[in-house]
Design goal:
The protein is of the alpha/beta class. It has 23 helices and 27 strands. The longest helix has 19 residues. The protein is globular, with a radius of gyration of 29 Å.
């Protein structure tokens, strides 16, 4: 497809029309020029292709597909290869259904556990989210199907999501809310990026030139298409000028007319319009020219893949006295309606019409289990008859497994959660069962954290997240030891909602949402405050044990333009095979700017047989040590010592070593009469020059007996240079200050 030739042959009206879809799911074709229409569809954790004709809301039934674990679940695998493989299978399914672009992955940062869409997002940590997004995109696009990296940017709440204004300072934006997008764009090159509903610092994302052109295209070198979230367009003409290429859904006839009129009146450059059309056509060409029409949906294979993904991702949070894995000879009570009818996927645009759903009761049908529903999913209140039946079953069994969690009505796209509590009926079930059964295990189906005031009353907790259509099989695999748990949390679980750093400001006031907590989100906040948490970022248990040794850095000092190679040995010291997620954190030991205690800069998942030892390696670059310096609008490293930490979680650091990093940045600092003595003397040249002036001032004479020389020097650290005129009396004249500034700034 000769894209530039096609654009040259299009009429102005045809070009304007190409900037919107033809309906809810399809791009617009140009029949006379042979330009076809292609289909885009949800979703990141399973194909949601609408069956039959598109309706105006995209709500008609979707084709049968496989539901995979949601983003929050698979993120806990910390397994790039697994995530990439899942992407490959999704790409094959898209080819089987003639879908050109899959609308995912979603990489927004989990600012608050209340966000209704957190089940779809990967992590509170930008490094982790970016690595996982890149792996997913590579997988899908290896099958010649595009992805849509979303929602760009700072879309961290569902509350008033279509009108809210995310007010975020530049450093926070660059360090937390943009890096996952940046990593995915630079490394995996998604075919499309989806702009979010919200405003960012006063301008809607769909018409934000700084976001879509200056940052995305000019800073990061992105050359793909930008598509709107469905219904996110405010001013279409401004959107074209800002770099937003395709409005969805279509047909957008009124906006096409506005685009045409704007070009004719000169308020919109036809060059900008041509660029938008070219980028839309590029996506169409990429798919059409690499179509794989003989690809077939392999339902059984893909269902088993969903099972494997879930088992690799679920997190064992507690295992007191090694109660798990369960013996197949024991009589076990499976309690809770989720045991038979599991909650396995999120609500909203990621809802898949499933091939088949396997609950834990069905998966354990050949084992010695009894089942009682215990509560009704339809009600949050206790159902006394169901409760009594469950308590009786628990009492007569060797142990009880409680299947609990929250429902679609409590957690979904489109609205935020009200709290972190499980329904009261389920709370009562826990309270009554633990009274009669000391060997009680909790399995939790939820897309995000819940509070656990009952944690000390149960012996074990397996966090299943929303594990896809094969969730029941995966849970049984883990409970009975067919699989060894290897997931770790990609988010912090607070003790209570009020502990969350965004708690005071989360919903905002009207449409104003201020990110006042700044860079302190998730573990960055809890570590800085030295706060107790329910479970820390990176935490998860296994049925075996791992030991770390021989941390080695390939150098003890480096320039920030160099790379640092880090290696560590990990050994399985238990009696069964397992997988460990080795985490690398970096700490700036002394900084002139406010920084987190530590930040994740590497992770690797390694599989080990009993007694086996492997070496795990990492490479750190400048960004591993840098913060975003708003004074120079770039990433910056301060010369100093950094601690490299190897951890089992963010709160369990096994080994550490110190490295010296030297900044190579050269910039001229200009001192003024309002520069403080402390700032000037922090510079070696400044210290030499100012020391001579301080000798003339004779601080002993100034302070006398009332204040010591050391105290006087401490006070002067915060005094501006002009203060010397007052303190120095006749010894310091204005022309002396001017001469000193000339020397400093020479």
């Amino acid at each position: 497809m000769d894209i530039k030739k096609l654009v040259a042959e299009m009429t102005l009206e045809e070009k304007a029309a190409m900037c919107a879809g033809s309906d809810f799911w399809h791009t617009k074709g140009v029949e006379r020029l042979g330009v076809p229409s292609v289909m885009v569809t949800d979703g990141p954790c399973g194909l949601r292709k609408q069956a039959g004709e598109s309706d105006h809301l995209g709500l008609n039934a979707s084709v049968t597909a496989v539901s995979y674990p949601t983003g929050s679940c698979i993120a806990s695998s910390f397994d790039r290869e697994l995530i990439q493989r899942s992407g490959e299978i999704l790409g094959e399914e898209c080819q089987a259904e003639d879908v050109a672009v899959l609308l995912g992955p979603a990489v927004n940062i989990k600012r608050s556990p209340l966000c209704g869409r957190n089940f779809e997002y990967f992590s509170e940590d930008p490094y982790a989210a970016g690595e996982m997004a890149a792996a997913y995109i590579k997988g899908v696009q290896s099958k010649q199907v595009g992805t849509s990296l979303k929602h760009f940017a700072a879309n961290s709440q569902e509350h008033r999501r279509m009108t809210s204004d995310s007010v975020v300072d530049e450093r926070t934006l660059r360090e937390l809310y943009l890096p996952a997008f940046e990593k995915a764009v630079k490394e995996a090159k998604p075919w499309t990026v989806m702009c979010s509903y919200n405003k960012l610092n006063g301008t809607y994302a769909s018409e934000n030139h700084r976001l879509l052109t200056e940052i995305l295209r000019e800073d990061w070198g992105y050359d793909g298409m930008v598509v709107s979230d469905w219904g996110a367009v405010n001013d279409r003409v401004k959107g074209v000028a800002a770099g937003m290429d395709l409005e969805m859904p279509g047909p957008g006839k009124e906006n096409a007319t506005k685009i045409t009129e704007a070009v004719l009146s000169g308020t919109l450059s036809e060059e900008d319009l041509n660029k938008a059309v070219e980028r839309v056509l590029k996506v169409v060409a990429q798919y059409i020219e690499n179509r794989q029409p003989n690809t077939a949906f392999q339902y059984e294979r893909d269902h088993e893949m969903a099972r494997q993904m879930a088992a690799e991702s679920m997190v064992l949070l507690k295992n007191e006295a090694g109660i798990l894995p369960l013996s197949k000879e024991k009589k076990v009570a499976f309690l809770g309606e989720f045991a038979k009818h599991p909650r396995f996927q999120g609500g909203g645009s990621s809802h898949v019409t499933c091939y088949k759903i396997t609950g834990a009761v069905e998966a354990a049908k050949d084992l010695n289990i009894v089942y009682a529903p215990g509560y009704s999913i339809e009600s949050q209140e206790p159902q006394e008859e169901l409760l009594a039946e469950a308590v009786k079953a628990a009492k007569e069994a060797d142990c009880a497994v409680l299947f609990i969690g929250i429902t679609d009505e409590m957690e979904s796209e489109g609205f935020d959660r009200k709290n972190l509590k499980i329904p009261f009926g389920q709370q009562r079930l826990i309270e009554e069962v633990v009274k009669v059964q000391k060997n009680t295990i909790a399995v939790i189906h939820c897309g995000a954290p819940v509070e656990m005031p009952w944690l000390n009353d149960v012996k074990a907790v397996l966090y299943a997240y929303l594990g896809g259509e094969a969730v029941g099989s995966a849970v049984v695999d883990l409970l009975y030891g067919e699989k060894n748990p290897s997931g770790k949390l990609a988010e912090t679980f607070p003790l209570r909602l009020e502990d969350n750093p965004s708690y005071l400001y989360y919903f905002g006031e009207g449409d104003l949402t201020e990110y006042r907590e700044g860079i302190f989100v998730g573990y960055r906040y809890y570590d800085k405050k030295d706060m107790e948490v329910l479970f820390p970022f990176g935490y998860g248990l296994s049925y075996t044990e791992f030991a770390y040794s021989s941390l080695r850095l390939d150098r003890d000092s480096l320039k920030d333009t160099d790379s640092l190679h880090v290696s560590v040995k990990v050994e399985n010291i238990g009696n069964r095979a397992g997988k460990e997620i080795v985490q690398l954190y970096v700490q700036d030991n002394e900084s002139s700017v406010i920084r987190p205690v530590k930040e994740l800069k590497g992770f690797e998942k390694v599989e080990l047989a009993p007694g086996e030892e492997k070496e795990v390696s990492f490479t750190l670059d400048k960004r591993s040590f840098a913060y975003y310096n708003t004074e120079i609008s770039d990433w910056d490293v301060e010369t100093g010592d950094f601690t490299i930490m190897i951890g089992k979680s963010s709160r369990d650091i096994a080994l550490s070593a110190v490295v010296r990093v030297e900044s190579t940045r050269q910039y001229k600092r200009v001192f003024t009469i309002n520069s403080t003595f402390g700032d000037i003397m922090a510079d070696p040249k400044g210290q030499e020059i100012v020391s001579k002036m301080l000798e003339k001032m004779n601080l002993d004479d100034i302070g006398g007996e009332a204040i010591s020389k050391d105290a006087m020097m401490a006070m002067m650290g915060y005094m501006p240079l002009r203060g010397a005129l007052m303190m120095g009396g006749d010894k310091i004249r204005p022309e002396m200050i001017e001469g000193l500034l000339d020397q400093l700034n020479a």
